[in-house]
Specification:
The structure is a single chain. Helices cover 22% and strands 34% of the residues. By secondary structure, the protein is α+β, with helices and mostly antiparallel strands. The chain has one domain: Elongation Factor Tu (Ef-tu), domain 3 (Beta Barrel), CATH 2.40.30. The protein has a six-stranded antiparallel β-barrel with strand order 1-2-5-4-3-6. The longest helix is centred in the first third of the chain and has 21 residues. It starts with a helix and ends with a strand.
Length: 96
Amino acid sequence: MKKIVVFSVFLMGLSGVFLWAQQRRQVAVLTNEVGTGESILIVEWVSPASVGMPITVEDRDGEATATGRVRHIHERHIILKERLGSTFPAGSRVYQ
C-alpha cells in the first residue's frame, strides 16, 4: 500500500511538471498597431523567441487573440508565415 501512495504522489508531481512545461511565456510587446491581414510585427522584446514555433498575439484586454507561426526574426521584427485575422493595438502581448 505504501508503494502505491508513493507512486501516486510521484505521478501527481510529474503531471505538474508537464503542465508547467506546456505554459506559454511572454516574449514581446507590440510597439505599433498591427492591422488585419498583416504578417510583420514590430516588437519590444521581453525574452527570446524561436523561428518555426507558433506565437499568440493577445490584445491588452485579453479578449482578442490570433496565432501564427514565426517565419523569420530580424532585430525588432517578427515575420509570420500567416497573416493575422484581427487588428491588435500597440501594447498587445506576444506569447510563445
